[in-house]
Amino acid sequence: MPKDVITEADEQQIVAAIAEAEKNTSGEIRVHIENNCKGKVLDRATEVFAELHMHETQGRNGVLFYVALLDHQFAILGDAGINAIVPEHFWEDVTAKVISHFKEKRYAQGLSEGILMAGEQLQVHFPYNQKGDINELKDDISFGE
């Protein structure tokens, strides 16, 4: 189980990073953690993105952080709205930051820093709208097998 690696304190740190990153944006960030990646990592991340209904956000500005712990696989998947406007190499830079922590088994730290980086871009391009902006997706971590 991924929960054998991700402690409750880790989970709280990651969820707090999601809340912080989403505080000033209409963008939505989710984290999915499982042990094994079934198939290619981007294909699996795309499946999870759909399963979590992340493509249904109003601004098409959802971002998924996908982790397969035992297979050492990681991907960030942004929806069409955010992918169209982030700077070139942005996702690669976030991935490099996250992976640098993963190599030291600092999963929560890596995810938290990556989430905050994504949140900064979301704030620039999808600012929080006080009128009618709702949290469209849960902030908790979803876990697979």
TrEMBL record:
Signal peptide: none annotated. Residues 4-119 form the TPM domain. InterPro entries: TPM_dom. PANTHER family: BLL7265 PROTEIN (PTHR30373:SF8), UPF0603 PROTEIN YGCG (PTHR30373). This is TPM domain-containing protein. It comes from Pontibacter qinzhouensis.
